[in-house]
Amino acid sequence: MYKKIIILLGLMLPINATGSDLGDIMHQLGEQLLVVLPALYSDDDKHLKSEVTSMTSLLHKAGEHIGTDPGTRVNYQVLLEQLQHATQRTNTSMLKSDLRGAFAICASCHNQDKHFVRNYGISKLKGMDEFLAAEYSFMTRDYPSAVTSYRNYLESDPTDLTKIQVSLDRLLVIGLEIYADPELAANNLGALKKNPRRHRRVSQDLDEYHYHLQNVT
Description:
Number of strands: 2
Structural class: mainly alpha
Largest sheet: 2 strands, antiparallel
Shape: globular
Strand order of the largest sheet: 1-2
Low-confidence stretches: 1-19, 117-123
């Protein structure tokens, strides 16, 4: 199990505003994410819809604090509509698909913003495995912690092909889009290639990713 660690909670959106009300909302969203992520990647998901509904309500409240930048407003609206659509699902698999899409919007927005904003309170990752801890850190812009956890997960002989692919993709995004450093991305994957206990699928993906990265560094 992932050790209990304390991290600074980052923004879920690039919001151009300050104030205790917004800070409270973002802190609550971060706490909600701690509940939603485990349910998203497990069969223990009977309360997932109600949790997503709560998250959607919080995001709606944050709307009045969103800045006037057109791009930010569009990203916010698309994200809100995606979550609202998810809450209307009666099929859990479809709900999870919508939720992953919403998180992809969050990640895409963060990639464009490229700011490390960690001033909305402190939260603990409790009882999360390395993959979930990595996802939480990635979504809240704690990229150094995300890299550490994704690498730890990939070095643990994982068997879940979806999580393996997500982890590799996130490491590439952090290296290439967040830090704009192809060499860093190559080094992250290169370090994993040295582990003799790698799962066969991880080995195949790493070899392919690393080959392409070497051609751009």
